[in-house]
Amino acid sequence: DTGVSQDPRHKITKRGQNVTFRCDPISEHNRLYWYRQTLGQGPEFLTYFQNEAQLEKSRLLSDRFSAERPKGSFSTLEIQRTEQGDSAMYLCASSVLTANTEAFFGQGTRLTVV
Amino acid sequence: GDSVTQMEGPVTLSEEAFLTINCTYTATGYPSLFWYVQYPGEGLQLLLKATKADDKGSNKGFEATYRKETTSFHLEKGSVQVSDSAVYFCALSETGANSKLTFGKGITLSVRP
Predict the structure, then answer these.
(1) Which residue, of A49, A63, B14, B76, has the fewest CB within 10 Å?
(2) Does the beta-carbon distance from A108 to B43 stay under 8 Å?
(3) SS3 (DSSP) at A111
(4) Are A110 and A11 in contact (CB under 8 A)?
(5) Rg of the Cα atoms in chain A
């Protein structure tokens, strides 16, 4: 297993366009998280999946954001009608279903909205 | 809500110097505490963790002790190396259903030869 994989690594889009990011977690990891990181800040929690169920969404996740994990494996994060404030690094992490275990992070997708 | 506060950076040290990076937290419950590190061009990776009071996490010469009385989890290393240059994040996870992480802002450490 090569770890958590995210695609694309970089995305530049025009304001108002829709973008979609993909995350492939480590096999057999039930938990999947999305975080957002802006310059000079730590990652901020966006949403959490346990298998295919989305169990928690942060209030940071506006109605322009949607995430799915249709078969409990890979996940997608879509941003509709992008705004310049959406420019950030989007991180995916996965872990096994054990309390307070290590979360493994992907290298992230850097989004730039111009 | 939960929060993590890290000392302001960046920090620049000479090789073999002693390192302390301060971290304090606020939590409603009894969290687990973590230090994550991000080396240049790489993703976040766990450096060490502690799950209860007075536990000491350690890895790669780094140590941190869970101090409930001072709500702190300071990171220390006795002798830093150039290869320790990275961004260090303190984080907590509440005991609960999803184990999501709450991070501090991170601090950049540069070690010069």
Answers:
(1) A63
(2) yes
(3) strand
(4) yes
(5) 13
pLDDT at B87: 97
Mean pLDDT of B4-27: 95
Which residues of chain A are within 8 Å of residue B102 when distances are taken between CB atoms? 45
The nearest CA of chain A is from the CA of B32 a distance in Å of 7
- The answer to whether the bond into A8 is cis (omega within 30° of 0) is yes
CA distance B96 to chain A (A): 7
The DSSP secondary structure of A74-98, one letter per residue, reads: -EEEEESS--GGG-EEEEEEEE-SS
Is the separation of the CB atoms in A6 and A20 below 8 Å?
A: no
Q: What is the pLDDT of residue B1?
A: 84
CA–CA separation, A95 and A38 (whole Å): 23
Task: Read off the pLDDT of each residue in B67-88 and give the average, rounded to a whole number.
Answer: 97
Q: Is the pLDDT of residue A1 over 70?
A: no
Mean pLDDT value across chain A: 94
User: What gap in Å lies between CA B58 and CA B55, rounded to an integer?
Assistant: 10
Query: Which chain A residues contact residue B98 at CB under 8 A?
Result: 31, 48, 50, 55-56
Phi, psi of B83, rounded to the nearest 5 degrees = -70, -10
Q: How far apart are CA B52 and CA A74, in angstroms?
A: 33
Q: Which two tokens stand for residue A53?
A: 């169920």
C-alpha A13 chain-centroid distance:
17
Structure tokens given for A107: 């290298």
Question: How far is it, in rounded angstroms, from Cα B101 to Cα B34?
Answer: 9
